[in-house]
Amino acid sequence: MGSSPSKSRGINRAKGYEWSGDIKLISYLGLGDFDQEFDIFMEHMNNDDISSVSIYTTPLSETFWTNWIFYHAYVVFCTKTDTETYWWSLEKNGEALILQMSRNIEDVRDKIEGQRRIKKYPNYWKPLLNTSDSSGISFRELYKYMIVDTDQLNIKYNFSSENCKKFAKIVFDKIARNKTWYYFI
């Protein structure tokens, strides 16, 4: 079903949560050569249209009563070629923007950097689909919007204001054809 991720590119690998202003690219293509996988990413970014987009959420804590307030939100979108479907997740955390790519939705929806998003023994918290829509923009348009137009790489993470939820809203609202996403807190 899934595969292990390749090394990331373009990230300050310092431990902790210090904003690096980078995009961390995680590939689950399993080719073993990240440069080749990066070339595949660039090809898709330059040529593909985004066909659908969704917002998923996962709890930040394993404590039930806090999950409706404290949760992580991220965007999953799909691109299709004549022969293949690719799945992508895009999200913001305290270190960087994280872009994951795979041929399997489970890799980008259920994992972050190769690990399950949150565990509670013996059960695993499954990501919750919040909303979804079709799309009418290209991957290149999304990249331009995020990097050039809104300068997301230079907006430092802030838990209360410039957080994963706000970032997911910006991305979803740009990609979605008909919907916008509203979140609480």
- Report the radius of gyration as a whole number of Å: 16 Å
The profile of the biggest β sheet is: 6 strands, mixed
Low-confidence stretches at least 5 residues in length (pLDDT < 50)? 7-16
What oligomerization state is this entry in? single chain
Q: What's the helix count?
A: 4
**Number of β-strand runs:** 10
Note down, in words, how this protein is organized.
The chain is α+β, with helices and mostly antiparallel strands and 185 residues long. 23% of the residues lie in helices and 29% in strands. It has a 6-stranded mixed sheet with strand order 1-5-4-3-2-10. The longest helix has 14 residues, at 34-47. The termini are far apart. Mean pLDDT is 85; it is low at 7-16.
In short:
The chain has helices at residues 34-47, 105-110, 139-149, 164-175; strands at residues 23-27, 50-59, 71-80, 85-92, 97-102, 111-112, 115-116, 119-120, 123-124, 128-134.
